[in-house]
Amino acid sequence: MSSIVLLGSTGSIGVNTLIIAKRYNIAIEALIAGNNIDLLNAQIKEHQPKVVAIANKADKERINHPNVLCGSEGILQLIEESKSDTIVNALVGYAGLAPTLKATSLGKRVALANKESLVVAGEFIDMSLITPIDSEHFGLWYLMNERPISKLYITASGGAFRDWKLDKMKNATFSDALKHPNWAMGNKITIDSATMTNKLFELLEAKWLFNTSSIDAVIEKKSIIHALVEFKDGSTTAHFAGVDMKLPIAFALRGEIEEAILPNVDLLSMGAVEFLPIEESRYPIWQIKEHILNNPHLGVVVNAANEEAIKAFQEERCSFFGMSEMVLNAYKKFENFKAGSIDEIVQIDKEVRAYVS
After folding, report:
1. 57 in a domain, yes or no?
2. What does the alpha-carbon distance between residue 102 and residue 80 come to, in Å, rounded to a whole number?
3. Domain span holding position 25
4. Residue 172 within a domain
5. How much is the mean pLDDT over the chain?
6. What are phi and psi of 228, to 5 degrees?
7. Predicted local confidence at residue 315, as pLDDT
8. Residues 205/192, Cβ–Cβ less than 8 Å
9. pLDDT surpassing 80 at residue 183
């Protein structure tokens, strides 16, 4: 691979992607970022992209680059005109869908960290062009090895409130929910981790990526085991790795890796590993797990409702559990919806947001 286009360059996936690209002399044709202009300018200086795109036109004058495109149209234009065969999509939320669709329509390979692309429109995306940048799906892929599978498992940390008493969770604040026990991530994914919506999305991703509904999730608090595969012969294998996205990124960009990207897991310092169930009383969104795996086209409803519910929680218009209530209510309201096209997905996304807000 000679060059890539990187969407979401200033987030943690983007920053790690640039580290891996530099290590393997992969050129950065284009950088796309949101509001972190200082970091973007530092990345421009170091990686010398041919073109840059930013979310807001108001920031254009602050960008230290002669070729700057703006807004969602600018991003799509950039992908259309790019020479790179690989697009790394690390944008957050629904905003990442259109770039994924654009890239795959052009036959470009997408190294995908944007969960919402598959959650919202998996049935309209060519999976042969998708390589997931996600420790869980990378772990599943790593383990499967074309043997007959009976069930796939991914793990969850349990989020910020996994050890809180339920009564205390009712009064949890937005800032409480951002205190993840295992790592620092962006606001949305950290909130989604606390509600377990993030894991529901990952189950949907796995359904599209591996063409199976035989998938579940369990809590593993240390986040050392990312995935397990149950084989038809009765054996189960687990994928152990440190909490570091450089490994799945390296495989996504290089195809095969034969050198150390991470230090090996120190089994003695790790100590005991424990698996716990995901309980609906603590994570109400889990009520719809089986239904949505059998009706994955409803991912668009959950995603739109969830993004609006997070806004409501941040603005103190609902409680922590109120977010899940809003999503489950919308899910019930729109359960008979089935999109026949991307245009219908865009339309229902708007309708769900209007209903929830």
Report:
1. yes
2. 7
3. 3-132
4. no
5. 93
6. -135, 145
7. 94
8. no
9. no
Alpha-carbon torsion, ordered 214, 138, 91, 212, to 10 deg: -20
Confidence of residue 242 (pLDDT cuts 50, 70, 90): confident
Question: What was the pLDDT predicted at 257?
Answer: 83
Cβ neighbours of residue 344 closer than 8 Å, sequence gap 6 or more:
none
Q: Is residue 255 part of a domain?
A: no
Whether the per-residue pLDDT at 71 is higher than 80: the answer is yes
Rounded Cα–Cα distance for residues 202 and 135 (Å): 10
Alpha-carbon gap, residue 241 to 261, rounded angstroms:
11
Which distant-in-sequence residues (6+ apart) come within 8 Å of 112 by Cβ?
89, 100, 118, 130, 131, 132, 133, 134
Q: Confidence class of residue 201 from pLDDT cuts 50, 70 and 90? A: very high
Whether residue 90 contacts residue 6, with contact meaning beta carbons closer than 8 Å, is answered with yes
> In one letter, which amino acid is 56?
N
Report the pLDDT value the prediction gives residue 181, as an integer from 0 to 100. 64
Q: Average pLDDT in the 197-217 region?
A: 95
- β-strand 149-156 against 225-231: which pairing, if any? antiparallel
Note whether 88 and 68 are within 8 A (CB). Answer: no
The CATH number linked to 73 is 3.40.50.720
Q: Give the number of domains in the chain.
A: 1
For residue 49, give the nearest of 62, 31, 37 by alpha carbon: 31
pLDDT band with cut points at 50, 70 and 90 for residue 190:
confident
- Kindly list the distances between the CA atom of residue 128 and the CA atoms of 12, 82, 282, 321, in Å, as whole numbers in the listed order: 26, 20, 36, 38
Q: Is the residue at 173 inside a domain?
A: no
